Amino acid sequence: MKNCFQIVLLLLIVFAFGCKSDDVKQPEIITPVTFQIDSTNKFPIISDDALLTLVQKQTFKYFWDFGHPVSGLARERNTSGDVVTSGGSGFGIMTIPIAIEREFITRGQGLERMQKIVAFLKTNTLKFHGAFPHWINGATGAAVPFSAKDDGADLVETSYLIQGLLTARQYFNGNDAIETALRNDINTIWNGVEWDWFRKNNENVLYWHWSPNYNWDMNLPIKGWNECLITYALAASSPTHAIPNSVYENGWTGNGSFKNGNSYYGITLPLGSAYGGPLFFSQYSFLGINPTNLTDQYTNYLTQNQNHTLINYNYCKTNPLKYNGYSELCWGLTASDIQDGYNANSPTSDKGVIAPTAALSAFPYTPIESMKALKFFYYKLGNRLWGDYGFYDSFSLQTTWYANSYLAIDQGPIIIMIENHRSGLPWKLFMSSPEIKTGMKNLGFQSPNL
Questions:
Q1: DSSP state letter for 295
Q2: Are 18 and 398 in contact (CB under 8 A)?
Q3: Could you tell me the superkingdom of the organism this chain comes from (predicted)?
Q4: Of 23, 222, 299, 365, which residue is 20 to 30 A from 282 by alpha carbon distance?
């Protein structure tokens, strides 16, 4: 009994100190307790290909079975009720062609869901200069405030939604009246976004938010390097409200000031902040934008994304903060739920929490490392991490905590990026958009896909 009390006391001490540590330069502040992970397989072994299909199919249920019954849009998380997310819905839309091609649903079923979604977005959803709010009431289309002053347009979330809609437009390419009407409705939404208006008084930068009640008070310019390349790519590609190259260069790249060039774990990071930031920086924009052989005056974007991912991987493998469980099998830091909150986890803001979406959405960049992580998550952690809609959002082996949440913005990239690794379908669809080819060339990008 005395030993049990000592163990519990030690765990409480570790929890109190472990959760506060986020400084990669002070590993000595954590004294971990080694929990023995049960190494037995919790599920029957299947082929790697079958496992990838299983993960895609199970995760797709979040968008298909749990989609809002009125609008068809994706709920923000599994406890959100009527609150749907514009960006997460864009990710969900991108999963529909995948589900059809993988025979999870029929083309007719996918088309029917797309009709519901697009009709709601076109007719029912409140828009601000053509842009969508971050959160929407999935039953009424009203804006739901994301924060005190964020009750209007969110241009970045809008860009994730448009990325999905253009992918679907390219997929549903039939000559019949239904698919033709769907494409026309998508074009109406796409053409209605006033990207250039978000320059705020014609500045050479785009702004993230605008509110009908607070105007530009959020005052957040969209500057790189982060998850927002897709916003500038779409803004430059708009047939109706395009921005000039000067907005991209002065705003997004800061005339080249977004370059890094330093080495971490022997790996050079071309762009961005120290250690690359959370992994969604190399994932959200590249659900549709194919980084393969994509270059400009600043970098090769596949190299950027691979190196960012490998730095994140090597940080977890090296484990400077000595968190229990971090290894070459258990890695991946990105924005996710943490105990009692949410955090943009990264090597410079590490709370000891691993998010499966981080490693699994990196499959196109690190297929070997991502497959090892997938097998660990599925076979070794089993149903503590695996549920009705695929992998739960996050977990900590340091404190033996497992989330019971699912988030649309984390589930979607798993399906999409696994498919980009397997067949490249989402990349092929989005990059086939003629407007994207023109717009990205105007920004100085070069690629065989353009």
A1: B
A2: yes
A3: Bacteria
A4: 23
Any residues with CB less than 8 A from the CB of 77 and at least 6 apart, and which?
405, 406, 407, 408
Q: Which helix (H) or strand (E) segment is 77 a member of?
A: none
Identify the structural domains of the chain with CATH numbers, from first to last: 35-442 (1.50.10.140)
Q: What is the C-alpha separation between 425 and 151, in angstroms, rounded?
A: 35
Give which of 421, 282, 272, 404 is closest to 336, Cα–Cα: 404
For residue 78, what are the contacts with CB-CB under 8 A and spacing of at least 6?
62, 66, 389, 405, 406
Structure tokens at 447: 């690629």
Per-residue pLDDT of the chain (450 residues; tens, 9 = 90+): 434 433 333 333 333 333 333 333 333 333 344 456 888 999 999 999 999 999 999 999 999 999 999 999 999 999 999 999 999 999 999 999 999 999 999 999 999 999 999 999 999 999 999 999 999 999 999 999 999 999 999 999 999 999 999 999 999 999 999 999 999 999 999 999 999 999 999 999 999 999 999 999 999 999 989 999 999 999 999 999 999 999 999 999 999 999 999 999 999 999 999 999 999 999 999 999 999 999 999 999 999 999 999 999 999 999 999 999 999 999 999 999 999 999 999 999 999 999 999 999 999 999 999 999 999 999 999 999 999 999 999 999 999 999 999 999 999 999 999 999 999 999 999 999 999 999 999 999 999 999
